[in-house]
């Protein structure tokens, strides 16, 4: 027989548990019948459409300055440091770098 502080007094909760079903979620909550039922009940309804819905269309979208980017033939490079500086930096300790 199990023992322990929770079972020592012999009291158990035999009250019934009632589960409540929540309303429809996702696409079902936006169906025509749901919207009409909400209108009949006098509830507030938001009927705005999503901007550019569905899928990842950014890969196929038109970039406003694409022509400029295609016509630009300049080569851009960041400024670099000398090889000697790179080697000297690797040799330095944390204390030397802090000064």
Structural overview:
With 99 residues, the protein is an all-alpha fold. It has 4 helices and no strands. The chain is flat, with a radius of gyration of 34 Å. The mean pLDDT is 78.
Secondary-structure blueprint:
Elements: H1 32-41, H2 66-71, H3 83-91, H4 94-98
The string of secondary-structure elements, in order, is: HHHH
Provide the residue-averaged pLDDT: 78
Assembly state (oligomeric) = single chain
What does the main sheet amount to?
A: none
Distance between the termini: 72 Å
* Percent of residues in beta strands: under 5%
Radius of gyration equals: 34 Å
Helix content: 25-40%
Number of beta-strand segments: 0
Question: How do you describe this structure in short?
Answer:
By secondary structure, the protein is mainly alpha-helical. It has 4 helices and no strands. The radius of gyration is 34 Å and the shape is flat.
Jot down its keywords.
99 residues, mainly alpha, single chain
């Amino acid at each position: 027989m199990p023992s322990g502080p929770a079972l020592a007094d012999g009291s158990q909760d035999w009250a019934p548990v009632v589960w409540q079903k929540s309303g429809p979620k996702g696409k079902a909550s936006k169906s025509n019948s749901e919207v009409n039922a909400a209108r009949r009940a006098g509830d507030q309804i938001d009927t705005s459409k999503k901007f550019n819905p569905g899928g990842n269309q950014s890969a196929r979208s038109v970039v406003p300055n694409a022509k400029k980017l295609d016509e630009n033939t300049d080569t851009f490079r960041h400024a670099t440091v000398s090889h000697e500086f790179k080697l000297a930096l690797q040799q330095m300790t944390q204390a030397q770098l802090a000064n």
